[in-house]
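Usage example:
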Amino acid sequence: MSRAARIGACVALLALAAAAGLWWDGGAWQYGDLPTRGLVRVAGFALAALGCFGVAAWLRRRSR
Amino acid sequence: MKRQAQLSRLFDGLGLVLGIGAVLALLYYWDPTRVAIKRLAPEADARFEAIPADMTALPVSEWLSVRDADEVRQRRARLAARIFKMPDLPRDLMPQRVMRDVEKNPGPHHTCLSPTGPAVVRLLSRTDTIIMRALACEAAYYRDWRNLAGIDELTGYLSKNWRPYSIAYFRPKTANGHLILYQQGLAATYHDQHRMIEAWVEDGYTVAAMNMPGYGDNTCYDWRRYCSGPLMDARFATDGGAAFLPPVIAVNYALAQQPFKRIAMIGVSSGAWITLVSAAIDPRIDVSFPVAGVLPLALLRGKEESAREIVEGLVDIAGVLDLAVMGADRPGRRQIQIFNRFDRCCFYGPRPTLYAGLLAETARNLGGHHQVLFDETHARHKISGWAVKRIMEAINGDGKVRP
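Running the assembly step on the lines above writes:
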């Protein structure tokens, strides 16, 4: 995994962890400080980002 | 080889963009950062901080005509006559039907439109099913709430093939002697506020939750359950009856079960308007909290105009400011109006500062207490944790509300 990908994956993971924590802390519902819809959006972006980094790493391994 | 290297760089780039998207989504949805974004937006000052120029010269003090207790009594009687076609509140009117413990035995009911429970229903359901969530379908999800003894459904059939009402009456096992009437607004049902109601029940509050007419069970969608019995007295078959009778019946029913030390009413959005009128006409409501709604009609803008029809038939008797004072007209009665300053929907900004002092002074002269608060903790159309904290302080009378 490239350095940029590692940083990107860390950012995505941190965003996901922060969102999950804030959602849970706010009561884990739509009317909390972070609504359930917001958690789902953040999770969607973060998991898609991690997926992309994973695919990139796999392609790099195959090309060696 | 070269193609795979290019592809891997492409996926790395896409991953970076999506990672940044995750951070931006977090900033967009989290209340504190959303408020910061709203404050930084172009024209934020004009929208959220300044009173619109065309409103500064309005004769606001002339809109308040109720000044003494006699006047309050007269207006209250006229409002009761207009809404209920009788000279006083129908204080002896009980629900036509009471279904006990619907969380255990919901009874026969129509197919559930949103049978997914409170946690994910907003994500998985269409809007037209969200606003039709039925107590018989949802009550089972509340069965395991701490301190919940049972949920009673109080119903009545107001107008033929059109309007029933349904009230969810949450009984705590250990009650603290306080009753909370919760009135949901439009585009939602009280089921969306399940966490808030759960917390109240856990703390020992008895809660009567109500939807707006046409929402949840306040329709004939479940015809057999709500619209197949005998109709109530024809005088209640009006829009006013459908909107303002359920809170009266909820109080009647509650007081027939047990005495209460304090009765509070909380309403959000359009529910704030129902709360405003209910507190004005029913002095048994000690403390009332219209949240994210309620402005004098001349101050309404854009989509706020849709609230006009709720009180339009009443304002020739008592204007919005009169109704506010009538909800805080004697010692022990209090009204706190809470506005979301950065509300992305409506009722935002500092417009209520035009008359907040006038309401406070008039209520004080009558022996009551009126206050306007601005919630600056979020930019949504909701009751926030901050607002609930202020509300509970006022209901319990154990803390001073912040200026």
